[in-house]
Amino acid sequence: MEFCQIVAYHGPNRWAGVPTLEVHVDLQARKGWRSSEDPQAIARLLSWLPALNDPPPQPSPGTSAAPPTESFAKLAQRGISLANVLERVTCVLEAAAGTPPHYSDCHAVNGAATVYLTLEFEAEPLGRACLETARKCVLAALNDTPFDAPAEIRKLVDLADDVRLGPSTRAILRAAAARGVPCRRLTTGSLVQLGEGARQHRIWTAETDSTSSIGENVAQDKELTKMLLRNVGVPVPRGRVAESPEEACEVAREIGFPVVVKPRDANHGRGISFDLMTCEGINEAFHHALGENSAGTSGVIVEQFARGPAHRLLVVGDRLIAATRGQSDVVVGDGRSTITELIEEANRDPRRGENYTDKLDTMALNEAAELRLKRQGLTRESILVVGQEIIVCVNGDLTTDETSQVHPAVAERAVLAAQTVGLNIAGLDVIATDIGRPLEETGGVIIEVNAGPALSIHVEPLYGQPQPVGDAIIELMFPGGENGRIPIIGIASSPESADIGRLTAELLRQFGCRVGLAVGDDVQIDGQQPFVLRGTDHDRINSLLLHPRVEAAIFECRIEQALASGLGCERCDVSVLSNGVLATGDLNGDSLLSGVLPLVHAVPLEGTLIVPADMPHLEELLAKCRGQVLLYSIAGETASLREHQSRGGRVAFLLQNNVVLGTGPNAYFLPLSKFDSVAPVVRQNLLLAVAAVWSAGVPAERLRGMMARTS
């Protein structure tokens, strides 16, 4: 069993409306293998991957394949092919890596040992790795050789952490998808565009394009942050910057022991020493903190040690959205194990790890922890007596949601702190014995304000209720239910597609819409000098959707490119297939159908596919289109148009000097005489342009009025 070829479609394609890997699998001598004849292999697979029996996810929008209703074990007992087994194993591995596919399918080639396996993917390198691991797993089951499933899955999880967007970004993108906001990853990092054209915004992890760079810089400077917060009445710990160990000890005497020593501008808790009671301890902590400062930054911060657990409060805009309580990392003596051994045992907890997806961080004796042990007369090799507790990390993982427990006065102080620093999204670190009482009553303090805070602790807390933080950020960027979409019209390449695109753009301009048009290698943006953008259709579509002035995008989709690499955008509100598509290049029959299917699969539920009433494979196209279908004819009203309209469908046809638009019981007559007096317009192309603009949401009455006024 070998993979002859793998093709990655990063947009709607001939198989589905989602990013899809197409794998050409050569089954070789096992072409006729059936699972019912090899129960031992199936038993091995189920022992390695028990999740094979879990129900598959529901289909994604843009797919038509229904998941099987029976368990894998029952299907295998009845008899399925080797390709179907490979498909299911790959899906389970993708799910284990955190990217469950909602679409997969097998396409057999009659009489051949080669099959097409198609699967949805999120990140191409991860999808390919899951495929190869699945092949390795299935072959091991067939040949009765070892397969270390936990180790192989861990490799996939580690790869997922490298190539996927981080958990904070994914939380925002999940909320965007629920709102219908389109998302485009702009780099291999975390820069993502939400929305399109003139309605777009951008995020970088948990920062938006409205996040103040001044606010970020202020938050980085802990002493400046503390000064600003103190001046507006927000409780902060007493203390100041010290430039030497001697000055640090002097500050500690001024404010009173115990104290905390920390870097001036480090983050993620690096270089912080807590509960220091002596100048000797301060001296050691000073050098540790100084080493975590950025280049060119001098001195450390010495401040009062506040009692109580750590809390992380998330502010979005002018609201407190979530709060999570932290815990210290502690090991407990058993009378025989060293501290190192106790930490190693704690790290065997499967929830602990170094990846973003791990619920708990790995415990480690860093320099601050070593200094803390030293102050207690201990080393990493010390054996703790039974019940003796040692804190490995004072501010460990934030694990427990406490949003409902936050006192309104604490929430008000948190919002004030974020606004004072100048951040629209901020994570505030609070130390307080009781978050349900005002900070002033308990001696609680805000110790840090963080830009770009982690969201996963609120979205998937280890304990307690998840909070809709992604929804709050999307509402901040797209208030009032906006979705950031602009109309996107895709026109299948044909001899007349350029004229259809030009006429559609002219009509949209009449309604005050700034249009971006990509035909061939030419890109035209209203109000800008046209330019040539060589490359692929993907590049030109991306140019339109990236442009900050485009309010409607029209593009020509070349059939051969769509067939080879899919569509360059996740959806087309209107897809136009003209009669001339039939004369495109050397594509005929199944190849032509496959070439236009990306445009068909790209039509969303609320979108429209415009297609000739006499188009070959029409019924198949209609079956694969999720949106509504507009049938058109240049031969006047035909029986097929009348039947389609009677079923509630949309139609468009030419009748004497009119374009007629029909839907259900309604018909609209739009005069063409004014257009003919201006220039020799190809009526069929104008018919399609009018139908496209109508389908994009312009009311027929407004179209009629505009066409009647044209002179």
Can you describe what's shown?
The chain is of the alpha+beta class. Among the domains are: 2-163, no CATH class; 168-209, no CATH class; 329-393, no CATH class; 488-709, UDP-N-acetylmuramoyl-L-alanine:D-glutamate ligase (3-Layer(aba) Sandwich), CATH 3.40.1190. It has 25 helices and 32 strands. The strands form 7 sheets. Strands 25-24-23-26-22-27-28-29-30-31-32 form an 11-stranded mixed sheet, with helices on both faces. The protein has a 5-stranded antiparallel sheet with strand order 19-14-13-20-21. The chain has a 4-stranded antiparallel sheet with strand order 1-2-4-3, covered by helices on one side. The longest helix is centred in the first third of the chain and has 20 residues, at 124-143. The radius of gyration is 31 Å and the shape is globular.
